[in-house]
């Protein structure tokens, strides 16, 4: 009898631990999160790192995108949900096309819906409207609105430029990421009603390089 009780207790403890562990690695319940991260990608870096497999909608030819939307990601204070189970239809082609001016890749838009949008608690139209509202909330500093010239900057300069251009944004609520010596993206933390807010975990993962390169469009 004691053995049975012990086994039952261990089973209950193991079962209760599963949801927390699953949420730390992905999963989660749609609409159950703490805040958003708006990720703004420096498009030339993305295109340069795709090698011989760039997204033709975003890279090559006469494409000259600077900062574009990578995604709007529901977050926990620690970790994040992803690929949440939802019922209902996937985004329509018309809904995807409406977002191409700020996220110029149909494949990326659909992927972001599957991985992150499904956890927002919104349907595709509502989520895409939230993506646009978040993008329009942020003022891109003048010096980063074009990608015509390659230059070097410090991550701190980029962060300071965004903070100076956006009233209410604090250094603790924005993080610059880098990859292979290039500026990759700027991640901005927003509340559920899209107000700037701090985010300790995101801020801790910021780029630690002293200088990074901003590739120009079409230079690699």
Q: How would you describe the overall organization of this protein?
A:
By secondary structure, the protein is an alpha+beta fold. The chain contains 7 helices and 6 strands, in the order αβαβαααβαββαβ. It has one domain: Alpha-Beta Complex (Ribonuclease Rh, Chain A), CATH 3.90.730. A hairpin with a 2-residue loop joins strand 4 and strand 5 (182-190). The radius of gyration is 20 Å and the shape is globular. Mean pLDDT is 87; it is low at 1-25. It starts with a helix and ends in a 6-residue tail after the last strand. 34% of the residues lie in helices and 17% in strands. The protein has a 4-stranded antiparallel β-sheet with strand order 2-1-5-4.
Determine the N-to-C terminus distance: 71 Å
Rounded to an integer in angstroms, the radius of gyration calculated over CA atoms is 20 Å
Biggest β-sheet: strands ordered side by side in the sheet: 2-1-5-4
The major pleated sheet works out as: 4 strands, antiparallel
Q: What oligomeric state best describes the polypeptide chains here?
A: single chain
- Examine the coordinates and then state which fold CATH places here, giving the name of the CATH topology: Ribonuclease Rh, Chain A
Number of strands: 6
CATH first level: which class? Alpha Beta
Q: Helix and strand string, N-terminal first?
A: HEHEHHHEHEEHE
Q: Provide the number of structural domains.
A: 1
